[in-house]
Amino acid sequence: YQARTITVQFSESQYIAIINASILQAGIIGGPLLVIARDNPAAFVLVTVGEIFVICMSILLLIFIPKMKYLKKWKKTKRSSPRSISLSGIEGIKVLNHPKGDELELKLLRSEVGRLKRVLSEKNASMDEITGVRESLI
pTM for this one? Predict the structure, then answer.
């Protein structure tokens, strides 16, 4: 329930499910081939190496290809966008790539700090008045 607002932009669960299915497929196909090739050492080694290769490549490709696609899309949109972008249009990760963007954010933060200082000084002044009244009563 609490994770309902997390972006699924980098979610790998669907790829992990596909990886598990491909490992199962490799086992279903490679297992009987290993039984058939157990008498011939060259064939046995070839089938074993092939099965290991298929399993490892399915894991590596299904984990890293989506990340490389996101990176390529990000680089393409980075060149075309002058202000800020979000990867694949999903709210969440924002990349600020405009040189004036940092100055604008810094200006906004400085104005916020100034406003908070004024509020704090007003609160301190009212606390001083309360303390002065309290001391005069004692």
Answer: 0.50
Dihedral angle, C-alpha 61, 65, 67, 68, nearest 10 °: 130
For the segment 62-100, what is each residue's pLDDT rounded down to a tens digit? 988 888 888 888 788 776 655 544 444 444 445 445 555
The residue ranking higher by pLDDT, 107 or 133, is: 107
pLDDT for 40: 93
Give the count of alpha carbons within 13 A of 7, CB side only: 11
* Contact of 81 with 98, CB cutoff 8 Å: no
Tokens standing for residue 112: 């916020």
CB 49 within 8 A of CB 37: no
Taking 80 as the threshold, does the pLDDT of residue 56 lie above it? yes
| Backbone angles phi and psi of 84, in degrees to 5 | -125, 155
